[in-house]
Amino acid sequence: MSDKLPRAAAWLRQHYGAILLLVSVLLLTALPTLLSLPEYPARKAAELLERSRSLNNAGLSGAERLGLEKDLLLYETDQRIKIWTAIVQAIGGGALLIGLLFSWRNLRATQLKLDIDRESQLTNRFTAATGQLGAQLNNGAPNIEARLGGIYALAAIARDSPRDYWPVMEILTAYVRHNAPRGPLEAEAAARSASHAPAQKPRTDIQAVLGVLGRSTPPEAKALRLDQKFDLRRTDLRGAEFWDAHLERTDFWGANLEGAQLWGARLDDAKLVKTQLRGANLKGVSFDRADLAEADLTGADLAEAELRLATGLTCEQLASALNQGKGARLAPGLVRPGA
Prior knowledge:
Blueprint: H1 4-14, H2 16-36, H3 40-54, H4 62-132, H5 144-160, H6 165-179, H7 185-193, H8 204-215, E1 306-307, H9 315-320, E2 329-330
Parallel strand pairs: 1-2
Helix pairs in contact: 2-4, 3-4, 4-5, 5-6, 5-8, 6-8
C-alpha cells in the first residue's frame, strides 16, 4: 500500500495536464446533452397523451380524461425536477474536480518551492559547517570550540538528511585521518617505554568526531556499497573512548587503538588487520565476522568478548591478551593456551 501511493502521485504529476484537458472536453461535450435533458419529460408526456387520445376514449368521461392529463402533468414536473437536480450535481462535481486539480497543482508547486528552500538551507549549513572544521586561532593553533561547532553541525545534517549521511561521514573520517595520523612505530615504542609519560588521549575535536561516528545511525539500505563504511585506517586513536559505539564495517587497518576504551562496542564486519589493540578494554565487544589478522592484543581485556565468528584470530594472539583471553567466547576450533 505504501508503494502504491507514491506511484499514483508520480503518475498524476506526469499526466496532470492531460487529465485536466480530458475533464474539460468531457464537460463541454456533455453540456448540450445535459441541457436538453429537461425537455425529455415534456416530450414523453406529450407522446403518452397523444397515445391515449388515439385510443378509443369515447367511454371516458370528462373527469377521467382530466385526471389522466393531470397525472401526466405531475409526471412531467417530477421528472424535470429530478433531471435538473442530476444536472446541477454533475456540473458541481465537475467543477469540484477541476478545483481539486488546480488545488493539487498549487500544493505541488508549494511543495517544490519548500523542497528547493530546504535544499538551499542544507547547502548553506553544509558549507558553513565544513568551513568551521579548519578554524584556527591567531597563533595558528586549532580553534577547538569552532571546530566542535562544525562537527556537531555536520552530525545534525547527517541526522536530518539521510541522503547526506555518507558524505558527512566521509568528511568527518577524513578529518580524523588528517588530524590524527599514526606516527612511526619507533616513536610509539619509545612513548610506551617511558614510564613517566602521561596516558595518550585523542584531541578534544577528534574524540568528538569518534563519538559522533559511534552514535550515528546509517540510513536504511538494501545493500551498502563497499565504500560506505567508516575509514579510519592508519590513525592514532590511543586512549580513545568508544563505549557502546556502533562501528560495524569500520576499517581500522593499521590504526593504533592502544589503551582504547571499547567496552560494549559493536565491531561486526570491522577490519582490524594489523591494528594495535595493546591494553585496550574490549569487554563485551562483538567481533562477528571481524578480521583480526595480525592485530596486537597484548594485554587487551577480552572478557565476554564475542569472538566465535571472528576471522584471523590465533592462539598466539590469545596468549598475549590479559589473562590469556579468559572469559572470551571463542570459536570451537580455537583453543585457549593452557586449556
